[in-house]
Design a protein that fits this description.
By secondary structure, the chain is of the alpha/beta class. The chain has one domain: TIM Barrel. Helix content is 29%, strand content 15%. Helix 3 packs parallel to helix 4 and helix 12 crosses helix 13. It comes from Setaria italica (Foxtail millet). This is dihydroorotase.
């Protein structure tokens, strides 16, 4: 992905090949009030770490084809590649095949025409994951670690989201595997929603914590867990309650900038439909009572923002670029699929959010440090420079089989990542 992720520094795992990555420089001291901070994003070969990326699968698959996945490679130096394909990536052998498919799909060093915000990727490092099922074996975890390319395992509750029908039905069946993951220092990435039809859609994450995640953390406190694309204060509070360095979370641009009104304004808006779903205005952006809660506990290190707990490195949050490039036809049909395509504009949107929060100095850690640190990967060293330069998001992106509608389609954004990299 094109931006780095945040977390806490962790030594590189001896079995993990060190991919190139992304980072962000703090604002440079200058007499000019308009000097802007610089992002360290994987150079034309890098993608950010710890992201939510769907880069393959072909056809109607919700991940789209490897060709559309190259958007991540052009904008980031590395990415964690999610495994919910058809069929799912349940074995190390399949993960290696999928990785090869992605590498073959990468362009030879140039981005698409007329897209000035893409970085040209010279080498993209896909970080592979395995799809956890009731039948995954501890031996598969050992094989994954030994491969040097599998960096995590993804838990999808069966039926919770796109292509999750083969997911976990009973976390108890997975305990031998999870114990092996502790031994192998391999993180568990969690789509944290229950699928009980009696639970309100907007309460699925809270109930998941109560029923599944909290008991799991109590039983296996050394298991490293990433709560993917969190949307509620309940999740933030849970992370705070856990031992530092063992539970982290990703936050997407859409869950920071949109609330559930975006689904219905001016008619039904299928391109704003994702899972977990957008929340109320007062809970979505983690705004409710955030400022007072944070300031009361961290008076010596605040920046006056309602997003403080999300941005502060202590809580192990990092960006999640949801690269879910569903074809326009699949999003607009009678039963459209979930997912928002944010990769092309994610850096611009995160810069907007952090600027509005008065926290541009926190963006470096969020985008570039926290993720690699949590996964035990080296931080990326190449940097890109985001500048205040208005540009318009294209209405659609065309690929071999159709069109993809991006987040904030047709809107004008103020931040533009430069196509020049720095060492």
């Amino acid at each position: 992905m094109q931006a780095a992720t945040t977390t806490t520094t962790v030594r590189a795992h001896p079995h993990m090949k060190p991919p190139s990555g992304v980072g962000l420089l703090p604002p440079a001291a200058s007499s000019s009030p308009r000097q802007l901070p610089r992002f360290s994003v994987p150079e034309p070969e890098g993608d950010r770490h710890g992201s939510h990326v769907a880069a393959g699968g072909g056809g109607a698959n919700h991940h789209a084809s490897p060709t559309t996945g190259t958007s991540t490679a052009r904008h980031f130096g590395r990415a964690i590649i999610m495994p919910n394909l058809k069929p799912p990536v349940t074995t190390t052998a399949h993960a290696l095949e999928y990785r090869e498919e992605i590498m073959k799909a990468l362009p030879p060093g140039s981005g698409p025409e007329n897209t000035v915000w893409w970085l040209i990727s010279r080498s993209f490092e896909p970080l592979m994951t395995l799809y956890l099922t009731d039948n995954t074996s501890p031996e598969e975890i050992k094989l994954g670690r030994k491969s040097g390319v599998v960096c995590a395992v993804k838990l999808y509750p069966a039926g919770a989201t796109t292509n999750s029908q083969d997911g976990v039905t009973d976390i108890g069946k997975c305990l031998p595997v999870l114990k092996e993951m502790v031994r192998q220092e391999m993180p568990l990435l969690v789509h944290g929603e229950v699928t009980d039809p009696h639970v309100d859609t907007f309460d699925r994450e809270k109930v998941f914590i109560d029923r599944i995640l909290a008991p799991l953390v109590k039983k296996l406190p050394q298991l490293k867990i990433v709560m993917e694309h969190i949307t509620t204060m309940d999740e933030v509070n849970f992370i705070e309650s856990c031992e530092e360095g063992h539970v982290a979370a990703t936050v997407t641009p859409q869950h920071l900038l949109l609330n559930r009104n975006a689904l219905f304004q001016g008619g039904l808006q299928p391109h704003n439909y994702c899972l977990p779903g957008l929340k109320k205005r007062d809970s979505l952006h983690f705004l409710s009572n955030y400022e007072n809660h944070f300031l009361n506990r961290h008076d010596d290190n605040h920046f006056g923002s309602k997003y403080d707990q999300i941005f502060h490195h202590q809580y192990g949050t990092f960006l999640a670029l949801t690269v879910l490039p569903h074809d326009k036809r699949n999003k607009e049909r009678s039963c459209g699929c979930a997912g928002i395509y944010s990769a092309p504009i994610a850096l611009s949107l995160y810069a907007k959010v952090f600027e509005e929060a008065g926290a541009l100095d926190k963006l470096e850690a969020f985008t570039s440090f926290n993720g690699p640190d949590f996964y035990g990967l080296p931080r990326n060293t190449s940097k890109i420079v985001p500048r205040k330069n208005a540009w318009k998001v294209p209405a659609t992106y065309t690929y071999s089989s159709g069109e993809i509608v991006p987040m904030f389609t047709g809107s004008t954004l103020e931040w533009l990542p430069s196509d020049q990299t720095e060492e």
